[in-house]
Amino acid sequence: MIKIWSMKKNEDAAAKKKPKTSAAQIRVQKDLTELDLPSTMKTHFPDPADLLNFSLTITPDEGMYKGGAFVFSFAINTNYPHDPPKVKCTQTIYHPNVDLEGNVCLNILREDWKPVLNLNSVMVGLQYLFLEPNADDPLNKEAAIEMSKNREQFLANVKSSMRGHNIKGSPHVSAPSPSIHSSLPLHLSIRTFPIIIYGGVETQ
């Protein structure tokens, strides 16, 4: 009887030491299992045990930004899904809806966010920004004006920025580090796709 009681005390102590899974973590885990992303989008978890902080790489295969590789960081707080994830572009890119600090103008990350939306909704929305940039709701006003008034020059600026050239004094990063890869943590299956890097394809 004494031995059984001692074992129970040890189990209780171990249970107390084990970190509790928050409601946000449970919801994020559910969102990740329901991801339905195309081959042009890949997630990366630097710490597989931390589901609340990760990155997404988008490699558009059509549109004005075709051939690029754009990385976004996701930081999710403990009030998710009542609060939207905080998303930033980790590179300086020439885009009407992304400013030079990496802030993203996407309505569902702001006033149109609802708890019924999920991470897949946000990721698809980010991809859409590269297919259909919106000059009517800009964060980078200079890029938006150029896009509206001189589309050919805007396209030239996009291509130039993707090669790492300065646009009106602002440096633009051509591509993320080739070491960036996708890794879905825990129970999530891992799918590998080619990452398009400017000037070539790197298959992981």
From TrEMBL:
The keyword Cytoplasm does not apply. One of its GO terms (molecular function) is NEDD8 conjugating enzyme activity. The active site is at 105 (glycyl thioester intermediate). Its EC number is 2.3.2.34. InterPro entries: Ub_conjugating_enzyme, UBC, UBQ-conjugating_AS, UBQ-conjugating_enzyme/RWD. Keywords: ATP-binding, Nucleotide-binding, Transferase, Ubl conjugation pathway. The keyword Transcription regulation does not apply. Pfam families: UQ_con. Residues 23-167 form the UBC core domain. It is an enzyme of class 2 (transferase). It comes from the Eukaryota. It catalyses: [E1 NEDD8-activating enzyme]-S-[NEDD8 protein]-yl-L-cysteine + [E2 NEDD8-conjugating enzyme]-L-cysteine = [E1 NEDD8-activating enzyme]-L-cysteine + [E2 NEDD8-conjugating enzyme]-S-[NEDD8-protein]-yl-L-cysteine. CDD domains: UBCc_UBE2F_UBE2M. Pathway: Protein modification; protein neddylation. Belongs to the ubiquitin-conjugating enzyme family. This is NEDD8-conjugating enzyme UBC12. It comes from Mycena venus. The lineage of its organism: Eukaryota, Fungi, Dikarya, Basidiomycota, Agaricomycotina.
